[in-house]
Structure formats: structure tokens, C-alpha cells
Protein: Cytochrome P450
Amino acid sequence: MIAAIDLHHCILTTSSIAKMEQFNNYQGSWFEVMTSNKDKLTLAISTMILATFFYRWTFSRSSINGGPCLPPGPRSLPIVGYLPFLSRDLHKQFFNMAHSYGPIFKLHMGSKLHVVINTSDLAKVVVREQDEIFSNRNATIAAVAITYGGRDVVWSDNNKDWRNLRKIFVHEVLSHKNLEASRYFRRDEVRKTIKNVYSKIGKTVDISEIAFSTEANVLTSMVWKNTSDEKANGDQIAAELQIVVANIVELISKPNMSDIFPSLAWLDLQGIEGNMKRQLDRLDRIFTRIIDDRIRSNYSNKSNDGVVHEGKKDLLQTFLELMDQKYPTSINITQIKALILDIMVAGTETTTTLIEWAMAEIMQNHDTMKRIQEELLQIVGPNKIVEESHLPKLQYLDATIKEIFRLHPVLPFILPRSPSQDCVVDGYTVPKGSMVIINVWAIHRDPRYWENPLEFNPERFLTNKYDSKGSNLNFFPFGSGRRLCPGVPLAEKMQMYILASLLHSFDWSLPKGEDHDLSEKFGITLKKRKPMFAVPSQRLSDVELYM
Ligand code: HEM
Structure:
């Protein structure tokens, strides 16, 4: 306790007392941790002070090895750095700080140096011109714990294994051929969703729950549709998987003292790493069971399993066949599990978040809702439900989704990048191993790139053709460069398919007494602060279309 008071005193006696008013959840969480783990704390403090002084000495010099100086940035406190002054909404705070410190600035969170990039021009330097150097991730401790030690695609650094897994992701998991072959899974699941919503006509529906289960069911079908115990246990497995995925997303979004003060990581003060390892145990049990079951049934009946129709394999079957190839194009069981994990986590949370924002914006903007529904009537017609073949013709809906991504990028800082060597951006040194944050939320609202940036206006995407692959760095909700999201083709299909179906088959209103609300909750994904609830009513006259 004494140590905790000392630490508090040290903070209060600085000239920054006034700024303490800005203390918030983020600060609250670290101070709570410090004061609620007294036993471990005394030991921790001495380790932390030594490590911090060493680290800060390294990075506080105006330049490294005589190169250009570090970017400008706010003054920070000993040990905790700028941590006490961080607000709950980091994306907005960094946007405002760019006005004081410029398009690139630095700050310390604990002992970790962070460099924040705020303009399209500098994002281009990082994700294009120096893409190779900036393609490490600097994974958090929670991310490493859940991904079998960073052996997946999302969190691995740029190395031979990552390049191989990424190739498999792009050419096998989400290849054009594979996506075409799996269109029936998507159709079945979206139809189930329509039926499910129809059963709730006039009642309040949780949009996030609907989007999550639709997406999760599509992904599980794509991965192991043909598991022999699928019928008996498939639903149970999918339900457990959904709980574990939700736990993982929650844990990965929590600020972790162990990341901020790596010298304390062994104490796992908040228990995040331990909890993540427990989630991994649960997941691993599910994956092991599915994989063993498939290997067994492949062995006993070679021609049957893994093949849905002739020539159509599920992903698990494809992965198992890749195991027989030679290194480096082969994969092992752990990598197969890590790939399945990536598909489930990266695919569900992101699409769910986007659909929630989309329903909130569209319901608030009546003209947009009207135009989308008119387009659907024209392209799909009043006597049919939406099919994937309609999607490329829904241009106004496509423009609306892009506008929603612009105002509410699902990953407001994309995912962190970290340089593999010291390098120079905009005349400043960005040291090897520092955490580079690209504030795509700020770039998407910058008046230099967008007219009336705060206005919701899908028309801007009808006249300006931006793609989702980050070709133009004024708009890159899926990242850009060699770490661009490889899920783009599936994400584009699913978000459009789910939204088009919800808006064509139903009219929507807010539950009685509810107001429109667009407030944000910052995290690794930028979610709606209040969950999106809405009440569906029947829109198509033929009841058969809902069965
Ligand atoms: C709304 C939907 C989605 C959004 C907004 C989104 C966004 C992103 C972003 C911003 C990144 C980091 C890119 C970078 O660092 O430049 C990323 C990476 C990734 N995404 Fe997505 N994503 C979505 C859906 C999906 C889906 C459906 C999948 C797969 C089923 C997926 C799989 C991945 C993977 C594996 C990576 C890591 C790529 C790498 O590091 O090499 N994502 N995503």
C-alpha cells in the first residue's frame, strides 16, 4: 500500500495536477490494478523503476545513433509516461493532439514508446513506401497468449511462417473459387436469419446478436461443414465457440499493465494473460476434437468426408491436405488451429460491429433508408428475397456501407505496426520496436480530404470510386499494403448480404421510448456505446418468403 501511495504522490507532486481531471477509465483501470494487488506491488515497483529508467534513457535522447530526432510529443511523467492523461476516447484525443504536435507525434505509455500517424500522406509512407519495414505487429501479451504464441496470421511478425500462412489465407481460405463454392452455406444461414427475425416481428431484436450468429454460423460451415458428429454436436460447438470468441475480444481490448510495463509482465497483475490461456484451453479442446474426428473419418472412409459435393471441400479438409506438403508450404496442426481461430475472431467481431453501426445510421437517416429500400425493390423485386447475385447491382447500398466505414471505421487504429529497424518518417526517427498507431478514424474525418466530413452523405461514394483495399489512403478501413485485411472479399459479401436481407424483408423502428444514438465506445474495435435494438415488421406480402 505504501508503495502505491508513493506512486500516487509522485504523480500528484508534478506540475501537471490540473490535467489530473482528465483521468478516466483508462487511468482508472491502471490505478485500480496498482492498488488492488498490494502483495505483488512492492516487488513490482523496483523492477519497474529500473526497467523504465533504462528504457526511457534509450528512447529519450533527441536522436538515435546520430540520426534525426524523435517526433515531437507531450511531456510525460516518470514511470507512467503519458498514461494518466489519456482519455477514454483515445481516437478523439489523438485527433486533437495532432493539432498541437503535428501529423506525427510520440508519447510514452508506461515504458513503451508509441508513434501516432495522423495524415494520409504519412500513412502512405508507413504502409506503402516502407511497408516491408513496418510490417511487424508488436503483439500484445493477450494476443500472443491466445494465438499459440503469435503463430497465426493476424499477430505474427513478418517472417517466413507468416508469409506462408498469409498465402494460404488468400489463395485457399478466401480464394474466388472457394468463396463461390461456399455460397450455399451463406444462403442457408441468411435464410435462417430471416426466418428467425420473422418469428420476432413486433418484438425488440438485438441487431448485434443477429449479425454475430449469422456470421459465426457461415464461418463454422465454411471451416468444418462435413464433420461427422456435426449434426449431433454442431450447434453445441458453435454456441461454445461464440462464447469463447466474445471473451477473447473483451480480453484483447482491455488495457494491460503487462504491455505498458513489460518488466511486470511476469506478475500478470490483471490476470489477463492467465484468463486468455484458459480461453485457449477451451478453444483448443474444441479444435482438437473436430480435427481428430476428421482425421479418423478420413482414414476410415477416404472418399466421403470433407467433400460437400463433388469437388467442394470444406476448409478443414484443405488444411489437412496442406499438412502433407513440404516445408515451407506445409502447415502443422498448431497452425491449422491458429488459422481457424483467426477466421472465427477476425471474421465475426468486425462484421457484427459494422452491421450495428449501419442499422443505427440508416434508421436515423430516413432518406437513406428510403433510397436503399427503393433500390432493393427495383433490383430484387417485391416477390423475392435477396440472393448473392443481386449484391453487385446494389450501388446505393454499397455507397452507404462505405460512408458508414468512413465515419465509424471498425478498427479505428487499424492494427498496430512496428518497424523492424530504426527508420525515418517525415524527417523524424521512428525507432525499431516502437508501436506505430495509424489513426484512420482521424484521417476519415479530416476536412482536407473530405467535404463536410461530419455529415453522413453516402452520395460522396457514388461519385468518388474508393475501393476497400486501401488504394487511396484517404479511405482504408481494411488497412493497406502487405498486411491489408485478407478477409475483404468475404467481409464485403457478408455485410452487404446481411444488410440487404434485413432491409428488404423487414421495415424497422426503434423500440418505444428509445432515441437514436450514435455514441462510440473505443477499443480495438470501435463499437456503439449502447447496443442497437430495433423492432422488425413484415415488409414482403408473401409469407412463404420468410419460411
Ligand atoms: C468489417 C469487416 C472487417 C474489417 C473492417 C477488417 C479490418 C481489418 C484491418 C484494419 C486489418 C489490419 C490491416 C493492416 O494492418 O493494414 C485486418 C487484418 C486481418 N483481417 Fe480483417 N477485417 C474485416 C473482416 C475480416 C474477415 C471476414 C476475415 C476473415 C475471415 C478477416 C481476417 C483478417 C486477417 C487474417 C487479418 C490479418 C492480416 C495480416 O496481418 O497479414 N478480416 N482486418
Notes: The longest strand covers residues 104-109.
